[in-house]
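Final report, section 2: Outcomes. Of the targets proposed, Flagellar motor switch protein FliM is the one most frequently requested by collaborating groups, and we therefore present its record in full.
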Amino acid sequence: MDETATPDAGPEAPSGRGRVGRRSRGAGPVAYDFRRPTKLSREHVRTLQIVFETFSRQYTTLLTSTLRTVAQVNLVSIDQLTYDEYVSQLANPTHMAVLSVEPLPGAGVLEFSVGTAMACVDHLLGGPGAESQPERALSEIESTLLRGLLDRVLGELRYAFEGVLRLEPVITGIEYNPQFAQVASASDMVLVASFDMKVGAVETVATMCLPFNPTLAALDAASNAHTTGERERIAREEAARRVRERLQDVPVDVAVRFGGTSARPRDLVNLQVGDVLPLRHNTNDPLSVTAADIVFAHAVPGAAGKRLAVLVVEAPENSNPQNPQESA
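The predicted structure is given below as tokens.
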């Protein structure tokens, strides 16, 4: 079964799971949509499996040690969806931690049910974490407690991604209505990892959402870095050496310029043959030698045989080679 296939809509989940239409571990085969083929190769899927399985193990250990209760997080699926498809499968309300995921452009989401969030807070306060939890937004104190836990969870996500890229996830906001979470446009592709999550007696399907195209680019870069052999490395170094050598023979247009001056438009319009236009260039000052409007040397005029020439001299102390406001 292709693990990147789009999950089908299942029966309504029990209230304790806090999800409608999410695929669970026991779901059967899923129809493949040939109108929107997956862009994830087998190597990409395998890399993501390693990343998210590492994350789920670390997540499990963190929840168990912090909440002091039996907790379990298991990877269920990795899907390529549009953001609209992802949001439409989430319960309302749900707990969505909106993330910045530098260096990836865009935003991500760490999501699980409100009941699970309340159970975590209950355990943090020394409670039993009963299965029946209120379905409401967290108070300021509850949010602060859960935020500390989530910051540590993001540390585990950073650790899991170390082999692919140096991800720096940071919580930028909390939303309870998925329709209000401004993470991406409806048609943008996202990468969604789904997890079976259990905290004490409360179970849910948690999700991790990341921008698809930037994540795919990071996977390609990591794959190329790992598969480059010694022979390919030597070939690249040789090609770079040849490019550097050939650049030394590329012809470059060079100009020698006097210092510039300023004039009013009416003076330029009235110029006639024989008029004299004074330049702001002292007769003792050297000329500027430029290429692509960048001054790289100074010179004084002269002759070489029957041709005009310049002699390169030291730059004057007050010269600014990066800002040549000069005219020919």
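The mean pLDDT is 81.
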